[in-house]
Amino acid sequence: MLQKRIIICLDVRDGKTTKGIKFKGNVDIGDPVEMASEYYRQGVDELVFYDITASSEKRGIMIDVVEKVAEQIFIPFCVGGGIATAADMRAVLLAGAEKISVNSQAVKNPDIISEGAGLFGRQCIVLGMDAAADSEMPSGYRVVINGGRTPTQLDALEWALRAEKLGAGEIVLNSIDADGTRDGYELNITRMISEAVGIPVVASGGAGTSEHLKDVLTAGKADAALIASMVHFGGYTVGSIKEYLVKEGVPVRIV
To answer: How high is the pLDDT of residue 27?
Structure first.
């Protein structure tokens, strides 16, 4: 079995790391550069940086903050938020990112996925997808954009399959219903999409205990688990999570 990855997400607003519940009630919790450095020291496998208001504010990403974070870490680094053109992608890669996450902008212009994959390689292009349970959709889940503010007519499973065909090399699947609750990942949609696509799926939204990661990496069939609140507030470290996973037979990288 391939090693499973533990990824920490830094949601950034106005230059500060922030966290909310179901995309609401966000509070600032620290400096993203300092936090990135600490999580790198703890042995996290990858880091994701989301400029969470770039799309809704119709502006570019905070390149200066991306550069400062990239200087502190030597692991795969994914950046997203307001990336709408190939020029935006190039700027983020030159600032030190290895991967680019497109979410709302990809829904508005799906060709950005294929264009980015053609220019920089599909391993660089990550589809960020925020999904909410909705019985009206064929899969039972609807894609929502603009930081959870705008429902679309896209079915989550259909969009995942289409994005893979367009050239996405990975999907970060975030459950809006579970986001920030620390009650566990949404296993149903994670398993559904993991089984349907041939690219890695990163589960996001709801991690609160190490057991939640074990569940989504095994029963949920995710290739990686993204965490935030449980390390920001919950008293967990990357090391303690990985020790638990090893004991439970889940293969992870130990440093």
So the answer is: 66
Q: Which amino acid is at 118?
A: G
Tell me which amino acid residue 84 is. Answer: A
CATH code of 115's domain: 3.20.20.70
How many domains does the chain fold into? 1
253 belongs to a structural domain: no
Q: What is the pLDDT of residues 167-190, one digit of tens each?
A: 999 999 999 999 888 899 999 999
Residues with active-site annotation: 11, 130
Beta strands in the chain (DSSP E): 5-13, 16-21, 24-30, 46-51, 77-80, 99-102, 125-133, 141-145, 150-155, 170-175, 201-204, 224-227
Task: Name the residue range of residue 31's domain.
Answer: 5-247
The packing angle between helices 156-166 and 187-196, to 10°, is 30
Answer whether residue 116 is part of any domain.
yes
Lowest mean pLDDT among 12-16, 104-108, 154-158, 205-209: 12-16
DSSP β-bridge partners for residue 226? 7
Nearest CA to 95 out of 71, 125, 60, 122 is that of 71
pTM (two decimals): 0.93
Q: What is the Cα–Cα distance from 103 to 109, expressed in whole angstroms?
A: 10
**Which of these, 159, 48, 185, 27, lies nearest to 106 by C-alpha position?**
159
Residue 25 lies in a domain: yes
Percent of the chain surpassing pLDDT 90: 77
With respect to residue 170, please indicate whether it lies within any of the assigned structural domains: yes
DSSP lists the bridge partners of residue 127 as 102, 171
What tens digit of pLDDT does each residue of 46-61 get?
999 988 776 667 776 7
CA–CA gap between residue 160 and residue 225 (Å, rounded): 17
